[in-house]
Specification:
By secondary structure, the chain is α/β, with parallel strands linked by helices. The chain folds into two domains: about 140 residues, Rossmann fold (3-Layer(aba) Sandwich), CATH 3.40.50.720; about 180 residues, Dihydrodipicolinate Reductase, domain 2 (2-Layer Sandwich), CATH 3.30.360. Helix content is about 35%, strand content about 25%. Helix 2 links the parallel strand 1 and strand 2.
Length: about 350
């Protein structure tokens, strides 16, 4: 096939439909490093979005951000009490996993559409309650899988669907980082080591990226999993430091991935077919430019990638859906599959058995 032709218009927004001038005003719930360094710049870059309210448990941090970005600062109590409710149209939830449900409940009760970070909650039961809450209120719920909106992933998915690499026969991926070292510079992320807030360790925090991106690329879901977890450093006494997973996806496709919170910084995803291979490397970290290579007919094609700000794409897409009156994807039901898969992964790691993914 003509690779050059396939990748023409690399960063095209095939999802864009809204042609008006309206704007979706957002309340940002959470002011940790990710909202500060990535979400706020993403909103300020994205078309049809405007951050107008910031909610955080640290009033001084919220006030400082509000002053810098022209927003209204709220405490969680004020948010739940409906203060400044008329100042935003939608809510972006980026807090510790186990607190997502309470903010989605408040947003849903106020009739506000919701963009909730992944993982959706600390466990599958609470995630299911979160989905039901939004459904009962009739509000849109999107889960923040930023990889879905990256053109590297979207163009790779199209290539797979075209049959260019033949029948997919396996997927291999990894995401690893030195969290222990990084925590020394920013203690605010220590909630990820608290099982009550995080729900788990490496699997919940970064293992979800290879899991979900594989689901998106193949447009199929895992049916059974076999996994192991472990920790070697005292900081990870309560949550797993590393996880290794072998999953069988629909159609019998084997998928192997690893995640590690105390290993060399790395991320890649490799899809192998009967006729070729797609390699995304680097793959998952928002602060790194992604790379793409396609191998066909014995030749390696390094693709000229158009880099994007993933949060800008995600927020622009969500606003486009809201303003165009269509439901955004990935939705809550999609996110629930990840939560149930993670539940099966932890069960497998504990029992040593292969576990069927629940529905």
């Amino acid at each position: 096939m003509d690779i050059t032709e396939h990748f023409a218009g690399f960063a095209r927004r095939d999802w864009e439909t809204y042609e008006g001038t309206e704007t979706v005003r957002f309340a940002l719930v959470g002011a940790g490093w990710f909202p500060r360094e990535w979400a706020l710049p993403g909103f300020e870059r994205a078309e049809h979005t405007e951050p107008t309210v910031i909610v955080d448990i640290d009033p001084e941090r919220a006030e400082a951000l509000a002053d810098d970005h022209g927003m209204t600062a709220l405490t969680p109590e004020e948010f739940h009490d409906g203060v400044a409710e008329s100042e935003y149209d939608a809510v972006y939830v980026c807090t510790p996993n186990a607190t997502h449900l309470e903010y989605v409940e408040t947003a849903s009760a106020a009739g506000k559409d919701v963009l909730c970070e992944k993982p959706m909650e600390a466990d599958a039961t609470r995630a299911a309650e979160l989905v039901e809450t939004a459904q009962d209120a009739g509000v849109s719920l999107m889960v923040g899988y930023r990889m879905h909106l990256d053109p590297v992933v979207r163009r790779s998915k199209e290539l797979i669907e075209s049959g260019a690499i033949g029948e997919v026969v396996q997927v291999h991926s990894n995401m690893s980082q030195r969290m222990v070292a990084e925590l020394e510079g920013d203690a605010s992320d220590q909630w990820r080591l608290d099982p009550d807030l995080a729900g788990g360790g490496a699997m919940m925090d970064i293992g979800i990226y290879p899991l979900n991106t594989t689901r998106f690329l193949l447009d199929t879901d895992p049916e059974q999993v076999s996994a192991s977890t472990g920790s070697t450093h005292e900081e990870f006494a309560d949550v797993e430091e590393q996880v290794a997973v072998r999953a069988t996806f629909e159609g019998g496709v084997p998928v192997v991935f690893t995640a590690n919170h105390n290993a060399y910084h790395d991320s890649f995803l490799r899809v192998t077919g009967t006729e070729g291979q797609i390699i995304i490397d680097p793959a998952f970290f928002e602060r790194e430019d992604r790379g793409l290579e396609v191998r066909l007919d014995g030749e390696r094609h390094a693709i000229d990638v158009t880099q994007v700000h993933q949060l800008e794409e995600e927020f622009a897409y969500f606003a486009d859906c809201v303003l165009a009156g269509r439901e955004p994807e990935p939705d809550g039901e999609h996110g629930l599959v990840d939560m149930r898969t993670i539940e099966a992964i932890y069960e497998s790691a504990e029992t040593g058995e292969t576990v069927e993914v629940g529905t």
